[in-house]
Amino acid sequence: MKNLKQYEQGRTFIAKLKYQSDLLEEINKICINENIKTGWINAIGAVSSLKLGFYNQETKEYIYTTYAYDEAMEIVSCAGNVSIKDGKPFCHLHITAADKKGKCIGGHLVAGTAVFAGEVIIQELLGEDLIREPDGETKLFLWK
Ligand code: ZN
């Protein structure tokens, strides 16, 4: 099966994210500094502000402002992966966050989310390079 690749487990990293750091950029930085090319990512914690993206499948563009919030929320789940885009590690993360009433919102995590407290686990995977390239149908950078 062409779309199925097999990997072995590599290093496992656990990091405490800095107060008021950018959630996506901090996780990206870890992957670049440690040269984690492929892996899965899981994070929990809380954010002081949250910025989400939503990909409009008709216009093939991300909508950011509609899902931009500016309030404290719990990170219920933030999960994703790291693969290679433009020759370097690239993190793709989605997040679900809850407000004080437990009401959740979620979406594609973009830069602009401020960490209040964050605990992240990154599991490196070893094997064939997993490379993102432009996809004709979706106009997204998908795995080759
Ligand atoms: Zn996404």
Domains (count): 1
CATH architecture annotation: 2-Layer Sandwich
Q: Globular, elongated, flat, extended or rod-shaped: what is the shape?
A: globular
Question: Would you tell me the overall average pLDDT?
Answer: 93
**What is the CATH superfamily label?**
Hypothetical protein, similar to alpha- acetolactate decarboxylase, domain 2
Number of helices: 1
The separation of the N and C termini measures: 14 Å
- The SSE order reads EHEEEEEEEEE
Bound molecules: zinc ion
> According to CATH, what is the topology?
60s Ribosomal Protein L30, Chain: A
Structural overview:
The chain is mostly beta strands and 144 residues long. It has one helix at 23-33; strands at residues 8-17, 39-56, 61-63, 68-69, 73-85, 88-98, 104-109, 114-126, 132-134, 141-143. It has one domain: 2-Layer Sandwich (60s Ribosomal Protein L30, Chain: A). The protein is built from 1 helix and 10 strands, in the order E-H-E-E-E-E-E-E-E-E-E. Bound molecules: zinc ion.
